[in-house]
Amino acid sequence: MRSVHPPRITPRSSDLGTRLRTLLAAALLTGAPGCGKATAPEAAPAEQVRVRYEAQTLDGATFSLAARDGAFTLINVWATWCEPCIDEFPLLAELHRELHGPPFSVLAVSVDSARNGARVKAMVRDWELPFPVVHDHENRIVTTLRVSGYPTSVLIDPRGVEVARREGVLRGASGPFLSLVRGALEDHE
């Protein structure tokens, strides 16, 4: 069942520039449904905590946020049964192709049950996803990132700290959340 609540985009750092805060405000005024419950924006935490997550990708490599120090990582949490999650694949692939390099990467994390492993692999193969994909059937990412609905996209900065979050479908390459991602990359250069 799709949520009719607006998605959530949450800034996680007090040092985001005025431009990013303006884009964030615009993003909060637009909405897109997802497969789970979207909630109101959270206040940025007083203490900036490094996100720690390590998992094996479908191709057998180890993905570690700690190894990505100095780079931005966009983590997209999804499931095969979530239509809005699947609708995002072309946009995520486009974003990855446009921005992929030392300062940026996309990581998709499926939260499907263990018995759906073959389905996850088939979907990734059929969509020809160009970025690493993890099948986290233990749902560790849900706890780590406090995910409350799908899809959820979280931008982790070069220090390993969450700086922005979108709960709900990413819409359009020039949408508010992706403009926020591009702005963060530009500000980092």
Unreliable residue stretches:
1-32, 38-46
Quote the CATH topology. Glutaredoxin
Fraction of residues in β-strands: 15-25%
Helix content: 25-40%
- What is the distance, rounded to the nearest whole angstrom, between the alpha carbons of the first and last residues? 41 Å
Q: Write the H/E string, N to C.
A: EHEEEHHEHEHEEH
Give the CATH level 1 class.
Alpha Beta
Strands of the widest sheet, in order across it, are 1-8-7-4-5-6
How many domain regions? 1
Structural commentary:
This protein is an alpha/beta fold and 189 residues long. It has one domain: Glutaredoxin. The chain is 30% helix and 19% strand. The strands form two sheets. It has a six-stranded mixed beta sheet. It has a two-stranded antiparallel ribbon with strand order 2-3.
Topology:
Layout: E1 8-9, H1 18-28, E2 54-56, E3 62-64, E4 72-78, H2 83-87, H3 89-99, E5 104-110, H4 117-127, E6 133-135, H5 140-145, E7 152-156, E8 162-167, H6 176-188
Parallel strand pairs: 4-5, 5-6
Antiparallel strand pairs: 1-8, 2-3, 4-7, 7-8
Helix pairs in contact: 1-6
Give a quick set of tags describing it:
disordered N terminus; 19% strand; alpha/beta; 189 residues; two-stranded antiparallel ribbon; globular; 6 helices; six-stranded mixed beta sheet; Glutaredoxin; 8 strands
Give a nutshell description of this structure:
With 189 residues, the protein is of the alpha/beta class.
